[in-house]
Amino acid sequence: MKIVRNPILFLGCVFSLFVQCSTDYDLVIKDGTIYDGSGQASYVADIGITNGIIQEIGSIKPGKSEVIDATGLYVSPGFIDMHTHCDGGLIQPGMSAAKNYLTQGVTTVVTGNCGNGTYRVEEFFHRLDSLGIGPNVVHLVGHNTVRRAVMGEDNRAPEPEELEMMKAMIANGMRQGAAGFSTGLFYAPGSFSETSEIIEIAKTVKDLNGIYASHIRDESNYTVGLIASIEEAIAIGETADIPVQISHIKALGKPVWGLSDEVCNIIENARDRGVIVMADQYPYTASSTSLAAAVIPRRLQAEGAMESRLTDPDLLPGIREEIAGNIDRRGGSESLVITSFRENHAFDGKSLAEISELIGKSVEETAIHLVLKGDPAIISFNMSEQDVNYFMQKDYIMTSSDGHIQVMGEGMPHPRSYGTFTRKIRKYVIEDQLITMEHAIRAATTLPANMLGLTNRGKIDTGCVADLIVFDPETIRDRATFANPHQYSEGIMYLLVNGRIAINDGEYNGTLAGQTLRMNKR
Q: Rounded to the nearest 5°, which phi and psi values hold at 265?
């Protein structure tokens, strides 16, 4: 299904009152079933686009316009991925296209999540602008990054001058265009922060109309627990009076399975009080992080002294016991699978249990050995499908991948980097009928756009930027699996980024039409 050009010459109708005039646009999407992102019912119409902006929606005579015949296809706003870790990949040679995102229908990615975003925002954006990028980029300044720059890995409260430095760095990053700030309170050094520290920073962000996105302190029962961590995130936003985004919401591990309803009750009570609280979610029962983050007690990482502590014979018995508990919490050693280990890629795709047998060490000793040799990335199967389903049906849950830009064939990454958005439509809309198409598209378009303050994206309306998807409901699907993750999604027939065609007839054409979206530039 290629783009076709109308062979009929534009004749005009200046002197006729009885002939309907055609209007020449750069591009007309003809006869598509439109899901406009609002959550309302679909309708069939044409879309006229000029200079990257939607000019008209209705019945359009294309004249000399370029035409996409969308008969039998669905048209939606481009998907906005609220939670990615694309930062590093976008600046690598040959990776800035982010093809694994474009082929899912993603036209905008949010970087800087889990507390890890650079505070040198203008420098980051300038580099992306000079490279050329496939999707648009929105950025968050990372609290962990800033705290590490000011305080290293110290496990203590900041001195007043240190707190002021952190506030100034985050505010400066926002003035350079960031949309807000993120925390990774599960990770060091963010885990060493008290709630009061984050509230003070959040108050600064409020003055710049920013949002607060949090990888909460505990998604399981590692420390304070899931419920207390949800309450903390909301308390930060409510006290500082800024919107709260709970990152990749989940109930991680059997001890907290079934708590999704209690979590949602807490969120909904806050929303009833007027607090802006939303969350994002990826549609899988497995998560992904580093092995150290999953199993090593966080206090051991303080002051950057993890290696010496993990090799201290006096501490090791207690450490091994805690590691055993954390492995069990994550689903057991068979459920922790190495995705990428630079020291020995032969371990990629193998479970911690399998590697333990190969190297002849106990599971706990194997975990320590791997962490000390390079701390590999892992996948762990730790969620229940019931909780995933419960969260997904809520009208304040956005879609996200929590993924990275992938080099085709390298490692055994989580399939979410290739298939999050197409999987949600194929499995949960079309096959399981858990949610409607309107619900799924709103969760990936208007909902995140509203959260970010993108007033002219995330919806199909006149005057909006033409970030658009034309997809085939019969063929849209994720192909990436845990066993074979390096497979691009199917069914995205056309993808427009800022009005330029990046996917044509199902094939990426090399276009780098993305823009850095400077949200709070002063």
A: -60, -40
Residue 23 — pLDDT band, cuts 50, 70, 90? confident
Tokens of 470: 């034309």
Mean per-residue pLDDT of the chain: 94
- Strand-pair category, 244-246 with 211-215: parallel
Q: Measuring CA to CA, how many Å separate 108 from each of 40, 77, 114, 445?
A: 22, 11, 18, 10
Strand order in the sheet with 79-81: 79-81, 106-111, 136-139
pLDDT tier for residue 345 given thresholds of 50, 70 and 90: confident
How far apart CA 484 and CA 406 sit, in angstroms, is 13
| Of the candidates 510, 521, 495, the residue with the CA atom closest to the CA atom of residue 108 | 495
pLDDT value of residue 22: 59
Give the Cα separation of 59 and 513 in Å (integer).
28
Whole-number Cα distances in Å, 82 to 187, 335, 458: 20, 27, 12
Q: Is 321 exposed, middle or buried (0-12, 13-18, 19+ CB in 10 A)?
A: exposed
Helix axes 363-372, 316-329, angle to 10 degrees: 100
> Would you state the pLDDT for residue 363?
95
pLDDT of residue 93: 85
Rounded distance between C-alpha atoms, residue 200 and residue 223, angstroms: 23
> Tens digits of per-residue pLDDT, 167-225?
999 999 999 999 999 999 999 999 999 999 999 999 999 989 999 999 999 999 999 99
Residue 227 Cα distances to 100, 234, 499, angstroms? 34, 11, 43
CB atoms within 10 A of CB 272: 8
The H or E element spanning position 180 is: strand 180-184
**Residues 270, 319 within the same domain:** no
- Shared-domain flag, residues 428 and 370: no
Q: Which two tokens stand for residue 161?
A: 């001058």
Domain that holds residue 93: 79-280+383-405+424-457
Which residue bears the tokens 């994720």? 478
Burial of 99 (0-12, 13-18, 19+ CB in 10 A): buried
Instruction: Round to whole Å and give the CA distance between 342 and 491.
Output: 34
Report CA-CA distances (Å) from 519 to 95, 140, 179, 210, 479: 24, 10, 5, 9, 34
CA–CA dist 281, 392 (Å, integer): 7
Check whether residue 376 and residue 387 sit in a common domain.
no
Rounded to whole angstroms, how far apart are CA atoms 338 and 335? 10
Position 126 in a domain? yes
CB atoms inside a 10 Å sphere around CB 31: 18
Residue 179 shares a structural domain with residue 299: no
Residue with tokens 């580099």: 127
Alpha-carbon distance of 177 to 453, in angstroms, equals 12
pLDDT at position 5? 43
Closest CA to 183 of 213, 211, 203, 159: 213
